[in-house]
């Protein structure tokens, strides 16, 4: 049966990808630790940078602003006239919102629900992989 072989290949590939993701996570954690150690050595030796012959490392300060009150920040942006320029929307959040609204509208008999600025491209079929046993 062709579908059984295709599914077997798909499950094997998924297992490979999952294993690689796990390995990549471990490697990235090791890289992060090494970066921190190199940074500490540069600081301890009061070096702004260091050329190793196989690559150069440099210290630099990185700016980071953390949002602690999104409503206050939105009000600030609105007052500065830049709110529209600063807006972004999380794809999964918009999908969940639209799906919920469309289902509620269909229940009430409104099958023509539209939101300006959103392209509703209806449902599409895909594959969900569960219970991999290889």
Could you please describe the fold and organization of this structure?
Strand 1 and strand 2 (56-58) form a beta hairpin. This protein is mainly alpha-helical. It has 4 helices and 2 strands. It has a two-stranded antiparallel ribbon. The mean pLDDT is 89. It has helices spanning 2-44, 70-80, 83-86, 91-107; strands spanning 49-51, 56-58. The chain has a domain at 1-62. It is flat. Helix content is 56%, strand content 4%.
Strand-helix topology:
Blueprint lengths: L1 H43 L4 E3 L4 E3 L11 H11 L2 H4 L4 H17 L27
Antiparallel strand pairs: 1-2
Task: Name the descriptors.
single chain, 134 residues, mainly alpha, two-stranded antiparallel sheet
Number of helices: 4
Q: What is the radius of gyration?
A: 25 Å
Question: Would you tell me the structural class of the helices and strands?
Answer: mainly alpha
Question: Mean pLDDT, nearest integer?
Answer: 89
Helix content: 55-70%
Largest sheet: 2 strands, antiparallel
Low-confidence residue ranges: none
The tally of beta strands, per DSSP, is 2
Q: List the secondary-structure elements in sequence, H or E.
A: HEEHHH
Tell me the distance between the termini: 18 Å
Characterize the overall form.
Answer: flat
